[in-house]
Amino acid sequence: METRELRYFVAVAEELHFGRAARRLGIAQPPLSRAIRQLERRLGVTLLERDSRSVALTAAGSVLLREGRAALDAVDAADRRTRRAGQAVNGGPGLVLATKAGASSELLPKLLDAYAAEPDAVPVEVLLCGIGEQERLLRDGRADVALLHLPFDSTTGLDTEELVTEQQVAVLPAGHPLARRPHLLMAEVETLSGLPMPRWPRADGSYPEGLGPEVRDHAQLFQLIALGRTAVVLPESVRTLLLADLAAVPVPDAPAVTTVIAWPPHSRSRPLAALIRTATRL
Amino acid sequence: METRELRYFVAVAEELHFGRAARRLGIAQPPLSRAIRQLERRLGVTLLERDSRSVALTAAGSVLLREGRAALDAVDAADRRTRRAGQAVNGGPGLVLATKAGASSELLPKLLDAYAAEPDAVPVEVLLCGIGEQERLLRDGRADVALLHLPFDSTTGLDTEELVTEQQVAVLPAGHPLARRPHLLMAEVETLSGLPMPRWPRADGSYPEGLGPEVRDHAQLFQLIALGRTAVVLPESVRTLLLADLAAVPVPDAPAVTTVIAWPPHSRSRPLAALIRTATRL
DNA sequence: GCGGGCGATACCCGACGGGTATCGATCCGG
DNA sequence: CCGGATCGATACCCGTCGGGTATCGCCCGC
User: Fold this and answer.
1) Per residue in B38-83, pLDDT tens?
2) Does the structural domain B92-161+258-281 have CATH classification 3.40.190.10?
3) For chain A, is the Cβ count within 10 Å smaller at the N or the C terminus?
4) Which segments of chain A belong to CATH 3.40.190.10?
5) Which of A34, A36, A31 is nearest to A13 (CA)?
6) Which CATH superfamily is domain B168-250 in?
7) A:B CB pairs within 8 Å
8) SS3 state of residue A5
9) Where in the sequence of chain A do the CATH 1.10.10.10 domains occur?
10) Does the CB of A1 have a partner CB in chain B at under 8 Å?
11) Best CA proximity match to B109, nearest among B246, B213, B237
12) Cβ separation of A6 and B159 shorter than 8 Å?
């Protein structure tokens, strides 16, 4: 199976429409139809059920969609990491670390400083990304290592080491009546009238239903809190970057958050191993 | 990057010889040389340092070897799993479970029986494999799920659930002087004169240096123990399949062995999820 | 110095990927 | 109920590219 065939199939399986898929792929529709037929013939399996008005995935087709995406990610990762390894001879970034913008604001500088002090340290590029993006960045090779936050992020398919565990705090507008309380319970935060919890994007980029504003990163979030539109429960390390007009109140019954350093299982280069070692010793 | 190019590169990188690699791939040498050059040109990276007498990997080349193998495994897995999904409409194996031959001899039948009693259970094929083979079988799609034994097997890159933890016992010839002791210590087992510990193959198939016999599976092993050539420390569940002329003595200070059920992270089909659920409830 | 091994180059051919034109089926609006 | 629109399949052509053979250039060892 060639990656071209896989890309074609994934496009059709996602669009469920040969014309649109062909446009997305930058080719005409007939070669695409032919390529899918050939793929089906070679696999000896029907992937798509098509009558002349609609296209639907068979059971085998959805298996190939899932597995094919993973395979294409792996190929893309090989491509990107090889390119980087080739250019790194001079001073290109030796490692790319992905982390949610605004998270781990205490840990990250400590980690970078400690690693930079190591012998044989290579340059580290920090890739600030949106919520839940880290897994994909690691899998398709745009990042080598990431900081994740349990229990929010999924670590399936990644190797991890635990770094720190911290309690959570509620972040409120400074003037809010509850902002002067010594602590709050989850139930109180969730039912704050007029301050619905914000909605984060899911893995596929869509947002869950709800009242709160849709947010992508912490900058957005803090501004919305300052404007009195929402409130949120976050790990206590966010305190270091709170704006003056925000208040943080401990929430003892919120689940503890564990920060882990994560990397794709098979790619443990020497610089990566050194970075992980440094992180676990902090 | 096409999988053909990756297969070509991996072959050359493994052989470090264009002629041999071409023979292995079933093509002539010139097209192979050209394909590698094209790949290098497209990536903008030198992968192989070649003078007319020898071929060596560059740093970027070894990155591509590692990442490329993973990518090819993922593509192979997509191929195999799709084929199986397509043929499973009638009664082909719905799930393939890999386990070390001779291990988990108590757990496995219980698991299979319990799963078969579930509604919607699909046929399960059991693939008995050698030591350390499970990871590769899972990654390239020949198996869907495996039983691994910590701390011996690596679970990097796999999702797992713990099933049982057991102590280990020393397996000795029945007539051995230590066979009647109520328990032994690791130090005693390791220094049994004339009974060196057997050597298991490493991930790459090679054997570590040492005195003991090279073994691949439990059948070999038990026969060698009965012959008085070796002794070994294994999880206590091996007792159920010990030959009459072997004795098992508890070794309290040997590390406990945890059996886990493992599967590739992205492929959690409905039958697989049911099997995992059944396993964790045993 | 010469033969042999090895990768690179030159050149040819056939297969296959991609494009355009068109068909056949189905749905929809009038 | 009919005509147009939509969509996948088919037919056919062309250019590219993957693969083969022949040969070269280089370097080693005898």
Assistant:
1) 999 999 999 999 887 788 999 899 999 999 999 999 999 999 999 9
2) yes
3) C
4) 88-166+257-281, 168-250
5) A36
6) Periplasmic binding protein-like II (3.40.190.10)
7) 148
8) helix
9) 3-84
10) yes
11) B237
12) no
